[in-house]
Amino acid sequence: MKKLMTLIALVAFSGAALAFHCPADMKKIDAALEKKPALSAEQMNEVKKLRADGEALHKAGKHQESVDTLAKAMKMLGV
Question: How far is CA 9 from CA 13, 17, 59, in A?
Fold first, then answer.
C-alpha cells in the first residue's frame, strides 16, 4: 500500500513539475526574441507560432506537449 501511495504522489507531482516548466521556457524564448536573433522572416514566424502554440497547450493542461513544442522553438533560437 505504501508503494502505491508513493507512485500516485510521484505521478501527481510530475505533472505539476511540467506545468511549472512551461512558463520558464516561454520566458527563455521571449528573452531570446528580444535580442533580435539572426533568423529569416520564415524562421521568426515559425518560432513565434511555436511559442504561441506552446502557451495554448500549457493553458489547456497539455504540459508535455507544451514542453515539446517550446523545445522546438528554443532549438531554433539556440537557447
Answer: 6, 12, 23
- In angstroms, rounded to a whole number, what is the distance separating the alpha carbons of residues 49 and 46? 5
**Using an 8 Å Cβ cutoff, are 77 and 35 in contact?**
no
Share above pLDDT 70 across residues of the chain, in percent, rounded to a whole number:
75
- The span from the CA of 17 to the CA of 14, in Å, is 5
Task: State the chain's mean pLDDT as an integer.
Answer: 84
Task: With residue 9 as reference, give the H or E element that holds it.
Answer: helix 2-34
pTM attached to this predicted model: 0.75
Range of the domain at 29: 2-77
| Domains held by the chain: number | 1
| Residues in the chain, total | 79
The grid coordinates listed for 2 are 505504501
